[in-house]
Amino acid sequence: MKDYYELLEISKHASPEIIEKAYRTLAKKYHPDVQEPGDVKSAEEKFKEIGEAYEILSDPAKRSDYDIELEEFVHNSQETNNKDVEINRLKDELNNIKNQASPDPSNSETQEVQEVPNDQINDAINKAYNDAYYQMLRDNGYTIRYKKSFKDILKNIVSLILTIVILLIIFFILWCIPPIRRTLMNFYEDPIIHLLLSPIVSLF
After folding, report:
1. CA-based nearest residue to 129, from 102, 84, 94
2. Residue span of the structural domain in which 14 resides
């Protein structure tokens, strides 16, 4: 995105008078008619950009819209640069980890370390990188959503079934105790409770 303030060599808080004065000065300086033959083409491009900048900044409504777009563009660029810097930093740290995990083969003291499988080292490095990257995203306000695997879903289903079975066993044991059974039957005979539980009981 073009910075029209930079093109006109003025501040972002410049008044309309300063904008007009800067435009006239630069338009006179870069007008194709006053250029050397070899500089005409570049001067025409510069003259066109200056006119475009003046057209936007001299109109209050257009200038207001442009200021909003410019601010958003600068903000997004800064965020992107910050992320790139953070990712480069993480890459440097990972390279250091790799270098430390790959000692000099000529050193006899490191032979035991070299026996560690490369797959384990790579998995550890990738995990450290992913953890650091996800933490960076959280720090920047992003929400990380993990997709559940089939194993996790199956595990949740088994846990639910076990919970239901345990509750049924407990209920059966309590039902076998006469005083508790009478209490439960009296409780069930209450009109309101009977109305609420009858749909559930009918399922069994």
Report:
1. 94
2. 4-58
Average pLDDT of the residues of the chain: 78
Q: Which two tokens stand for residue 7?
A: 């093109």
Residue 65 lies in a domain: no
Are the C-beta atoms of residues 11 and 5 closer than 8 Å to each other? Answer: yes
CA-to-CA distance for 24 and 50, rounded, in angstroms?
9
Give the per-residue pLDDT at 19: 92
Distance between CA atoms of residues 97 and 115, nearest Å: 17
**Dihedral, 185, 189, 193, 194 alpha carbons, nearest 10:** 110
Does the pTM exceed 0.85?
no
Q: Give Cα 138 to chain centroid, integer Å.
A: 7
pLDDT tens digits for range 60-90: 999 999 999 888 888 777 777 777 777 777 7
Q: Is 135 domain-assigned? A: yes
User: Distance between CA 90 and CA 131 in Å, rounded?
Assistant: 10
Residue 66 lies in a domain: no
pLDDT at residue 95 is higher than 90: no
- What is the total count of domains within the chain? 3
> Does residue 64 belong to any structural domain of this protein?
no
User: 65-69 — which CB contacts under 8 Å span 24+ positions?
Assistant: 66/4, 67/12, 69/1
